[in-house]
Every structure is written in C-alpha cells, then in structure tokens.
Specification:
CATH topology of one domain: Rossmann fold
Distance between the termini: 74 Å
Order of helices and strands: EEEHEHEHEHEHEHEHHEHEHHEHHEHH
Keywords: Lyase, Pyridoxal phosphate
Strand content: 15-25%
Shape: globular
CATH class of one domain: Alpha Beta
Protein name: Threonine synthase
Number of strands: 13
Largest sheet: 6 strands, mixed
GO molecular function: L-serine ammonia-lyase activity; threonine deaminase activity; threonine synthase activity
Pfam families: PALP
EC number: 4.2.3.1
Structural class: alpha/beta
Helix content: 25-40%
Length: 417
C-alpha cells in the first residue's frame, strides 16, 4: 500500500506526477517535495513494518516513493542502533541521551539512507546515467548504489576531499572528477547548470528523493522510544538533507497521529564555516556565503555556503523551536574521544552532534530532563588522520618478555625469572 502520490513545489505549489524524472519544479524551478496520502495511513503500516526488520529501512516502503514491484537496492541500510549512553550522558549532564549510530551503515555513513531510496527510485524511472558532487561520503554511497542499480555514475569530488574517501568512490566504480573551486556557490552554479541541461542529478534538494530515505531516522527513533518523539534531535549539517529528512519524518508521524509532539531540531556546523549558524543568529531565512571551509577538520560538513540558501534547513530549525550551533575543532576531537568511550568510532563531522550538546547543555538550551538523540553520521575509519589526532597516544613500549609484562601490570615477578 504505497502512499506516495505526487511532487509539490515549495514555491508555486504546482503538482508534478511521480512517474517523471523531475528534479526542480517544471513550472517555476522551485524545490520539489514528495507528498503522501496519509489519510490512508494506519497503525497497520507500523505493525507490518515492525515485523520486517530483515529488510532494514525498506520495511517502511509504504511511506517511501517505491514503485510497485520494484526490488529494493538493499545492502543492509537502516535500523542502526539507538544506543543508551553509559558515560556520555552523565558527562554532558543529559542522562536521557541516546546516540543514533549510523557509522554502521554499508558504506560507513548516513548517506546510504538517502541514496538507497533515491537511486532505487531513479532506476524505476529508467535513469541510466547520473551525477552528484561530494566531499567524500555522499560520493562513496552514490557510487555503491549506482553500481548495484546499473547506473553510470560520475562524482564531482571536492579537490580537498580526504584521499581515503576518494579512493572508495573509485573502488565502487564511479568516474571521479576532482572539482576545483573558490566557493561552494561556484559548485552549486555548476551542478545546477548540469541539471538544467538534462543530466540527472543526485545533489541534495535538487534531487527531491534523497531526503525521503533520511526521514526513516524519525521512524526508527520514535519506534525505539515506544512511539514517542524525543525532545531534541541533533544532527550535523552540510547541505542539511539529514536534518530536513528527519524533520519531514517526524511531521508525517504526527499527521498520522502516531506521535503527539515534535522534537526541537539542532543543526551543527564547524565554526570555521557556519553559514547556517550565521543566518540563524541574524534571524534570516536564507544563508549567504560565510567562512572558510578549508580551516576545519570537519570535512564532511565544511562549506562556506549552503545549497539553495539553506532555506529548508533553517525552516526546520525555526519551525521546531530549535537552534543552529557552531563548534570548534577542539570540541570535535573531545567529542570523538567521548564517543570512543561508548564504543562509537566517529569522524569529526559525525561527532559534531555530541560537541554541540556540550555547548547546548552548558548554555541551557537543553535541560537535564530532555530525551535527546544525537545522530553520529559517519565512521572515523573514513578519516584516519583525524582519528590519529583525536586518540590518546599509546601508554608506552614494552618488550615481549614475561617478566617485563608482569612488572608493567603490577604483578610479582616470577620466582627464578
């Protein structure tokens, strides 16, 4: 019982059928959103989804744009753990803190939620060739799912991208082009021109499907909390598809009567390049260029300008009564260490949600009684140089000698040893 019905434009509200490979609104060029006939939704959908955990996020197919008879591009995406923290919540002063660990996705980042759905949808429309741009994680995810779908993929990867991530994109079979630029605004102008020329785009928001996969955050989190929404959800923000997608999912659950309130959404950016934070501080609904993306270790969320002015990200923050928060690199390394003690290996950008909570709690934006979900979006193994910088050094060297080892551990040396 798929409930997806049509696209609707954010600006002119024109409707577009779902059986066309639409990107921006054909009438005015505005951003498109997929609408669902939620009047037909029922608890039966949730009951059916609960019994199909073997197919991950695809158990929510009734609430995704999935064509009838389409086989999902399933690699194990979705249903990542919502961890109750052992030490972290007490350290920050939020005992009810949970960590949504998307480092365990197939390619090691939350991007798999969006690309599994968006690439599968494009395949059902007959798309054979497509592109995206990326700082690394999105490119790897796109390359993987495009290969599974038989789509010829090109990734425009930022020239400052981490070499490990760039290698993964090539390994998964995509054509990689290094992108030289002075500002993110140049990137958005270029990718928009490609889309307008007829090349199918998987760039966030220009593609109206990627954040449909991201909304499964909301479904999984509310289900794990006994069909209650958290008080606060914290998400790192680059283009902001994860935060916007989650916000859409929470709103859909409330429209269906499954939850009775919505969480406050906190978006996090690095201090060196925080255009969304700057716009929020100024009370604006669009963000311009601000900062220097090369001056932070948080590569995955570093950009001096957000796509489409960040209008959807800012809308989610304002509508939810949330905030936009900037964090320094030192905060990110500290958050990586704190997450490590919980068994979660996060790259710096992924640890930004925890870094933001350290600040939010200290300044009273989050209370000790709040139920808070911090999304950890990508594995630290994908940025090994940063992992080495964050980790404490080894305690020292010791010879592989029984007596030396016993002495180091404080045990008596063996008699006659």
């Amino acid at each position: 019982m798929n409930l997806a019905s049509h696209y609707v434009c954010d600006d002119c509200h024109a409707r577009t059928p779902l059986d066309t490979p639409a990107l921006l609104c054909p009438a005015c060029g505005g951003l498109l959103e997929i609408e669902y006939d939620l009047t037909r939704a029922s608890r039966e959908i949730l009951t059916r989804a609960a019994g199909r955990r073997d197919i991950g996020l695809w158990r929510w197919a009734d609430l995704l744009p999935v064509a009838d008879g389409t086989e999902p591009l399933y690699l194990g995406e979705g249903d990542t753990p919502l961890l109750t923290t052992r030490l972290l919540g007490d350290r920050i002063g939020i005992p009810n803190l949970r960590v949504k660990n998307d480092t365990l996705m197939p390619t090691g980042s939350f991007k798999d939620r969006g690309f599994a759905v968006a690439v599968g949808f494009a395949r059902s429309l007959g798309v054979e060739e497509a592109f995206t741009y990326s700082s690394g994680n999105a490119g790897a995810s796109f390359a993987t799912y495009a290969a599974r779908a038989g789509i010829d993929a090109t990734v425009l990867v930022e020239d400052v991208a981490n070499p490990t991530k760039v290698a993964a994109i090539s390994l998964y079979g995509a054509r990689v082009l290094r992108l030289r630029y002075r500002s993110s605004l140049e990137i958005f102008a270029g990718v928009s021109a490609l889309a307008e020329a007829g090349f199918y785009s998987f760039v966030n928001f220009i593609n109206p499907v990627r954040h449909e996969g991201m909304k499964t955050y909301a479904y999984e989190i509310c289900e794990a909390l006994g069909w209650r929404a958290p008080d606060v959800m914290v998400h790192p923000v680059g283009t902001g598809g994860g935060l916007w997608g989650a916000w859409k999912g929470f709103r859909e659950l409330r429209r269906m009567g499954v939850i009775d309130r919505l969480p406050r959404m906190i978006g996090v950016q690095p201090s060196a390049s925080a255009p969304i934070v700057r716009a929020f501080a100024d009370g604006r609904t669009t963000a311009g260029a601000h900062g220097d993306a090369t001056r932070t270790v948080a590569q995955s969320i570093a950009g001096d300008a957000p796509i489409q002015g960040g209008v959807r990200v800012l809308r989610a923050i304002y509508e939810s009564g949330g905030r936009a928060v900037a964090v320094d690199d030192g905060d990110l390394f500290e958050a990586m260490r704190l997450l490590g003690a919980e068994g979660v290996t996060a790259e710096p950008s992924a640890a930004a949600s925890v870094a933001a909570l350290l600040r939010a709690r200290a300044q009273g934006w989050v209370s000790k009684d709040d139920v808070v979900v911090a999304v950890v979006t990508g594995s630290g193994q994908k940025q090994p140089d940063a992992l080495e910088r964050a980790a404490p050094p080894p305690a020292g060297d010791v010879r592989a000698d029984p007596d030396e080892l016993l002495a180091v551990f404080g045990a008596p040396v063996r008699s006659g040893g």
